[in-house]
Every structure is written in C-alpha cells, then in structure tokens.
C-alpha cells in the first residue's frame, strides 16, 4: 500500500474519531502499526500534525459563535469568563504536555497500552451511561471556573493514547454537572487550543523531518481529517443527546480486543 493511500486512510480515521470518545490517537497508532506506517519518528509526528484539519473543521462550524464570543470579550463579562475558563482548562495539559512530551512519545505511544486503555475506557463509558445525572449546566459557556479547571485536569489523562481526549473531557464535565450535549460541546471548544498547541509544539520539535514527501503526506491527511471531522461535529451532539455513549463504549471494547488478538498473533 502506498504512503499516500495510508495518509488518506489515517486522515479519515483522525477526522472521524477526534471528537468521538474513542481515542483518535489510539486508532491511528493501531492503524499505523498494522499498516506498517509507524516504524519511524515521522509516523508519530504525522498523527499529531494531521489534527490541524480536525481543528479547522470545528472553526468552520462554530465560527459565528466563536466570533461573537471574541467580540463580546470587550463588553460582555460572561464572554470573558468563558474565554478565561477555556484557558484555565487548557493550562494543565499545556504544562504537563510540554514537560513530558518526549516521555509520552517514547514510552506511551505503544499499541499494547492503547488496546488496554481502549477497553478500560469503554467500561468507564458504559458505567457513565448507566448513571442518572441531574445536570446543573446546559450551556458550555456557563460552567463555573473550578469546573473548567477540573475538566482540564481530567483531560491530562488523555496523554495516555487510548484514553481519548474528548472522552475524558465529556465524562468529567458530566460528573461535574453538565448535561450530555453541553459536555460534548465544551470538548469541541477545549479541543481547539489543546490540539493547536500539540500541533505547534510537534511541528517545532520535528520540523527537520518535513521533507517535500512528508509535507505532501501531511497535506493529504489534513484534508481528509477536515472533511471527516466536519461530518462528525455536525452530527455528534444530536446523537449523544438522544442515544448516549453505549455505541462508542462497545466500539472501544471490540477494537481493543481485536488489537490484543492481532498483537498476540505477532502482527
């Protein structure tokens, strides 16, 4: 299989899984392992760089709302508080991610770890789906500042591939009192600075690997990630509001088990 076809597949998977509680990085690492595309450092970097397409998918869908919040920062205290809340939620991952970047990529980007965390995360989602919450918040812009910080701390768990950034933020937001829709929507907003920071840091650390061939692969993955991410963001909120997370929980368990079987067989 050519590198370009692999880039298309990985870009589509990134866009489809980035905003679902199934771990996009975990899925990409598994596909890279079984497609033979991750045996070098660029394979790990590619996983991070194509996230930019998914970031732009959110921006394109929420541009009007984000622009209102940006303009409102100068006159609306609630808009300023929400921006501050997003920055507070982003801060823990920024600090830990920068401090432990090499450790995470060298030791945690491991397919065995991914498979086990996929299964464990699936069990957590099934547990959360059975709880009867009494939400206190129905708008992502109205969470309390301590709640934003708590979500940001939980998001750090997603530095372990397979945990899922969106899964960690959605579950923690619900445990803190958000309904399913606002929890999922805030995971979109928090994704933008988190993913943009990871993209910029990884590009800075690995810009020397960006040959013309690698740039082409990233561009292909970027476009595919954008298209797939756009589709998911447009449909995910309505789906989880009506059906919950059981579909994604069982998907995680099945994929994790299949991965363990393939690894045990020597693939």
UniProtKB/TrEMBL annotation:
EC number: 3.6.1.27
Main location: membrane
One Gene Ontology molecular-function label: undecaprenyl-diphosphatase activity
InterPro entries cross-referenced by the UniProt entry: UppP
GO cellular component: plasma membrane
Topology in membrane: Multi-pass membrane protein
Transmembrane regions listed in the UniProt entry: 7-26, 46-70, 82-103, 109-128, 140-163, 183-204, 216-237, 249-266
Keywords: Antibiotic resistance, Cell membrane, Cell shape, Cell wall biogenesis/degradation, Hydrolase, Membrane, Peptidoglycan synthesis, Transmembrane, Transmembrane helix
Biological process according to GO: cell wall organization; peptidoglycan biosynthetic process; regulation of cell shape; response to antibiotic
Enzyme class, spelled out: hydrolase
Catalyses which reaction(s): di-trans,octa-cis-undecaprenyl diphosphate + H2O = di-trans,octa-cis-undecaprenyl phosphate + phosphate + H(+)
Annotated localization: Cell membrane
Other observations noted: Bacitracin is thought to be involved in the inhibition of peptidoglycan synthesis by sequestering undecaprenyl diphosphate, thereby reducing the pool of lipid carrier available.
Family: Belongs to the UppP family.
Biological role: Catalyzes the dephosphorylation of undecaprenyl diphosphate (UPP). Confers resistance to bacitracin.
Protein name (Swiss-Prot/TrEMBL): Undecaprenyl-diphosphatase
């Amino acid at each position: 299989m050519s590198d370009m076809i692999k880039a298309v597949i990985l870009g589509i998977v990134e866009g489809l899984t980035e905003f679902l509680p199934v771990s996009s990085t975990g899925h990409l690492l598994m596909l890279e392992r079984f497609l033979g595309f991750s045996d070098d450092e660029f394979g790990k970097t590619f996983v991070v760089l194509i996230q930019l397409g998914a970031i732009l998918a959110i921006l394109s869908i929420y541009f009007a709302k984000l622009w209102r919040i940006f303009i409102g920062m100068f006159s609306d205290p609630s808009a300023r508080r929400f921006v501050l809340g997003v920055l507070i939620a982003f801060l823990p991952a920024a600090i830990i991610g920068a401090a432990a970047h090499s450790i995470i990529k060298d030791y945690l980007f491991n397919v065995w770890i991914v498979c086990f965390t996929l299964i464990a995360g699936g069990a957590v989602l099934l547990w959360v789906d059975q709880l009867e919450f009494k939400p206190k918040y129905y708008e992502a812009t109205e969470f309390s500042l301590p709640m934003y910080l708590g979500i940001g701390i939980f998001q750090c768990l997603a530095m372990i591939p397979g945990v899922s950034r969106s899964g960690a933020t959605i579950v923690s937001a619900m445990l803190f009192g958000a309904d399913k829709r606002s929890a999922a929507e805030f995971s979109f907003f928090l994704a933008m600075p988190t993913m943009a920071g990871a993209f910029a840091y990884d590009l800075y650390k690995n810009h020397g690997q960006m040959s013309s061939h690698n740039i082409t692969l990233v561009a292909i993955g970027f476009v595919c990630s954008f298209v797939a991410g756009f589709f998911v963001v447009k449909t995910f909120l309505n789906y989880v509001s009506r059906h919950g997370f059981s579909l994604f929980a069982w998907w995680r368990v099945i994929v994790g088990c299949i991965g363990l079987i393939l690894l045990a067989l020597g693939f």
